[in-house]
Amino acid sequence: MIKYPQGTKNLSPNKPKSSTPEKNKVQFGKRGMNFEFEINATNDYYLAHGVAVIHKKPTPIQIVKVDYPMRSRAKITEAYFKQASTTDYSGVYQGKYIDFEAKETQQKTSFPMKNFHEHQIIHMEKVLEQGGIAFVLLHFTALEQTYLLPASDLIDFYHQKKGLKSIPLDYIKEMGHEIMLGKIPRVPYLDIVNKLMLR
Length: 199
Hints:
Order of helices and strands: HEEEEEEHEEHEHEH
Strand order of the largest sheet: 1-4-5-7-8-10
Strand content: 25-35%
Oligomer: single chain
């Protein structure tokens, strides 16, 4: 079985239905749709409308053991990640290479630095050196707020504040850009990228 960092949700049909009023289910963090799902849907919209070609990067795995309970059905029972991943998404927008990471947290006043690894910081540095656009999308689930933080500001914070365990929300607000969540596309992050390109 492949274990993912965020685990899996209980999808048991016997689980009682929530008594949450229907009107509350339209909120971003309460629809059973996580941040990654929303970004993937946004990227699908961008692709379908000829705006940009941006995809989630597949994570290569090494399959170790496979069971065959039936001739027509194979089941992977053991696998390992081949290498550390770089960032979540990459693609092309208006002739520019785009590369970004997407993270979410339940915290309200800061974003945990443990979510960022040194190899990801190095990767984003190299993207910037080559003239690409790199950033992180940070979603505060409890606050219903999403920010685009340019990679340069994340990198500066990482190198200057290595002892800190989290990025203060105030820093993110000062150096980043809030994304006003919409309906279609749900996370219109390219609106902010346009401003970064003009800069």
